[in-house]
Amino acid sequence: QQVTTDQGLFLGGICNPTRTTPIMNELYRVLTEYVLTTVRQLGWYGIGGIDVLVDQRDRFYFIDANFRMTGTSAFILHLKNHQRFTPLLSFTGIFHGTQAQFIECLVPLAREGSPKQIMTVAALTKHADGFAMSAGVYFETKAALEANITTLKRAGLASPVFDEIASLRSLRNVFSTE
Questions:
Q1: Rounded to the nearest 10 degrees, how much is the dihedral formed by the CA atoms of 46, 119, 138, 114?
Q2: What pLDDT, on the 0 to 100 scale, is given for residue 124?
Q3: DSSP assignment, residue 31?
Q4: What is the pLDDT of residues 148-163, one digit of tens each?
Q5: How far apart are CA 155 and CA 130, in angstroms?
Q6: Cβ–Cβ under 8 Å, residues 75 and 136
Q7: Residue 67 above 60 pLDDT?
Q8: What is the pTM of this model?
Q9: CB 76, CB 15: distance < 8 Å
């Protein structure tokens, strides 16, 4: 599920293995049986994503094919391959600081298997005065997501999705069971 501003700006994506619905099962069936079969017959091979809109009557519309690695692709693949079982919010972020500061402040929060782990990093790049990343923050509830984002912000990680998270209407149905 994409997370967007009210103006439609993409901020990140929710990957939630615990939230399956009949429409999602039907969507995957149509994707695998028809869309991907047709695309492969046209010569495509590799990773990609397809943006889908679902209306209030559970009709879906394929609107944008991204035949490339997207910001959420790595996390979706982890979930589909049963390598992750916790919902997460994917995001892009920037850490301003030295390598030593990055290791001290963020590595403990991303170290696989650590009791402090609240995030995972899919891609990391040296940035002008710090590091840019594609990452995901774990959550089970809205309160946990907000707490983890606060922890990441205090550790020096900045992201547009962090600044918008409290007011995003696109997150309302993610937490509809709370």
A1: 120
A2: 92
A3: I
A4: 999 999 999 999 888 7
A5: 13
A6: yes
A7: yes
A8: 0.70
A9: yes
